[in-house]
Amino acid sequence: MAGPAPEQDLLTRPRGHVEDPSIERLAEEAGHTDELAVGRRLFGWREALSILIPLVLLLAVARNVDWGTALATIRGSNPVLVLAALVVYYATFPIRARRWARLLREGGLRLLGRDLLEIIMLGWFVNCLAPAKLGDLYRSYLVKQRFNVSLSRTVGVVVAERLLDIFVVFALLVVGGYIAFGRTVLPDLRLVYLSAALLGLFIVGAFVGVYFVAPRVARFFPREVRRIGRLFREGVLHSFRALPEAGPETVVIWLAEAGRLAFVLAALGLELPISGVIFVAVASSLLTTVPLTPAGFGFVELAVVYVLTTGFGLPTHDAIAVAVLDRLVSVFSVIVIGGILYVRHRRRESLLNSRR
């Protein structure tokens, strides 16, 4: 397995160096994210509230739904096609790991996708259980811990990865919406387009902030904070040198996400044009960026039901069946598989610690 990059002054801490306490505290919290997510504190009031609020909203919106029909539709789904949806979904993780390795490589860390596959699965597992995207911080911490690299730079790379995802989702939303609806913007879907436009502005603002504003503001902060900010900035900006390879991989990832939804629809005996499938998949994915609930729970389901009913005229009970089955594939399966990986990871860590 590859070690740290030759760029030692940027990627490793010098002997006797004490990192900024706030960053050190974040690292400690990230290191305990797995315990917070799977231990008893998962059921603390914050976690319960992050799930309860969107659940109440979902039930309020769907109070007139024939739940018996929706559940019957789910029970009657084709298991072979559900399995196909699972296969397509999990085929994206090696691509995600390879893309992440390419982005890290621009910062000098020589890794392969297989070195990061388990880490990225553990990050997804934590994101499915804990709010605030703690899984992204946790996987950054695992890379720091396993390969002895800067946490600030690694977090910057993850931010670049997320920005790239948002950019591709925005592009696919525009293209899919144009093909599905033409130049007509349905009044009921203006909220979706508005959300996408705000995310587009966020991308532009983030780049301006990181590239132009941050270096000018940094001089007012202590030297150590400037160093951490520089590493974070380099992590973000250097990652985009890999855009010729990472860009197409990102498009493949999100088309596969649409493919997963297509198999879910087929499993339920429902049909949408391919442009509509892409539109629904990426429109709902926009709300996974909301850090208020684990994996966007509640918000994503509402978005799927809203777009399927108002944009494509599906009955509400069918739309709810799609939302529930798709989340079983994309979230609850990750909790099961990620839980197995988590237990194995913890056992390995305990064994290594006992040998030290």
General description of the model:
- With 356 residues, this protein is mainly α.
- It has helices spanning 8-11, 21-31, 33-38, 45-61, 67-75, 79-90, 92-105, 113-129, 134-147, 151-181, 190-218, 223-239, 243-267, 274-285, 299-312, 316-355.
- The longest helix has 40 residues, at 316-355.
- The chain is globular.
- The two termini are 20 Å apart.
- The relative contact order is 0.15.
- Mean pLDDT is 78; it is low at 1-24 and 33-43.
Biggest beta-sheet profile? none
What's the β-strand tally?
A: 0
Question: What share of residues are in beta strands?
Answer: under 5%
Which structural class matches the secondary elements?
Answer: mainly alpha
Q: What is the average per-residue confidence, as pLDDT, rounded to a whole number?
A: 78
List the helices and strands and how they pair.
Elements: H1 8-11, H2 21-31, H3 33-38, H4 45-61, H5 67-75, H6 79-90, H7 92-105, H8 113-129, H9 134-147, H10 151-181, H11 190-218, H12 223-239, H13 243-267, H14 274-285, H15 299-312, H16 316-355
Helix pairs in contact: 2-9, 5-16, 6-13, 7-8, 7-13, 8-9, 8-16, 9-10, 10-11, 10-12, 10-13, 10-14, 11-12, 13-14, 14-15, 15-16
Describe this structure in a few short sentences.
The protein is mainly alpha-helical and 356 residues long. The protein has helices at residues 8-11, 21-31, 33-38, 45-61, 67-75, 79-90, 92-105, 113-129, 134-147, 151-181, 190-218, 223-239, 243-267, 274-285, 299-312, 316-355.
Features:
mainly alpha, 16 helices, globular, disordered N terminus
